[in-house]
Amino acid sequence: MQSCRAGHNLLRFRELRGGAIRTPPLARATYMIWQILAPSQELTVPLPTYFNKETMYGLVSQVLDEGHNARCKVIYLDFAPLKFIDSAGVTVLSNLIEFLKKIGAKTYFKGHKTLHTPVRFLDDSGFFRQYLGYDLQQGAAVRATTLPLQLVEYSRSYGYMENRLVPWLANALETEERALSTVKVCFQEIFNNINDHSQVNIGCIFAQHYPNKDLIQITVSDFGVGIPYRVQQLEGNLSDQQAIARASEQGFTTQTTVRNRGAGLHVLVQNVAARNDGAVMIHSRRGILTCVRGRDGVKRTPRPAKGFYPGTLIQLALHTNTFVSDEIDEEFEW
C-alpha cells in the first residue's frame, strides 16, 4: 500500500472525469464535512482475496480513518487478488465507492480486465455497468440466483420491497409473494434502522441464493454514524457490541415515535432467527452481534470486531429448507 502524508482539506462535491467512476446527481446534492487527509497523494488498495463481512475491515481501514476521512485524494481499487466475494463484500465495496465520491475523492479500478471468476460475477450483477457505465463482457446478464446491487433511499424502500425484493425472494423460496408479509415487515425495520441511525437515509442491498446450500444471503449496509453511536447517547456506559445487543432488545428504541416502540431490530431477529432458524449478523463501528435460534428462543452473541466499520451492516441468512411462509388465508397485522 502506498503511504499517504497527513493533511487537511475541506471538501465539496465534484463530478469525476477522465475515466473515474461516475457520480450520480444524488451524491452531489449536499456539502459534507469529511476530509481528505492527503489531497496530493494517491493510493492503491488490493481487495481482500475472500471479501466478506469478516475481511472488510482491512479494506476500509486502508481507505478511511475512524473519522470517516479519506486517506488520499485518488484511490485505485485493485481487483486482481479477489477470488470470492459475497453479498456483504458487494455492499461494502459499493458503500465505499459512494462515500468516496461524496467527499470528493476519485476512485479508479484496476486488475478487473482479466475477467476472472469473481469479476465476471460482479459484471453479471451490473456492478461495473453502475460504476463504469458499461459491462466488461459482452452478454453480461443478471443471474437468476442474484438480486443485483441497489442503492435504496428510505422514502423508496417500500416500493423496492414490493417490486424487486419480495418477488425475487418468493421465487427463491418457491412460495407466493403474499406469503411473505412477515418478511416485508422485517426489511422495513432494516430500512427504519437506516433512517433512524445512519443520518444518510440510503442503504445498499444485495442478495444471493445458493441453491446447493439451501441458503439465501441478504446484506443491507450503510456508511452512517452506526447503531452504537445512537444507543450510547442514551446509555453511554455500553461498548459498541453491547450497544448493538441493546438495540435488538424488545421495547428498546432511540426514537420517540410510536413506530419504533417494541419493534425495530427485535422484530427482525425474532422472525429470521427464532421463527425461521436463520441468522442475523449485525456489524457496526467496533461491535458485532450474531443472533441464531437457541434452546430458549434467540441466542444473541455480542463480540468486538477486528476493525472499525463506519456505519451499519446487517446480513441475513435464510435457509430455504426451514423457511416458514405466512398462512395465506390469514391477514398479517402489525
TrEMBL record:
The keyword Membrane does not apply. The keyword Kinase applies. Residues 75-127 form the STAS domain. InterPro entries: HATPase_C_sf, STAS_dom, STAS_dom_sf. GO terms for molecular function: kinase activity. Pfam families: STAS (PF01740). Keywords: Kinase, Transferase. This is CheA signal transduction histidine kinase.
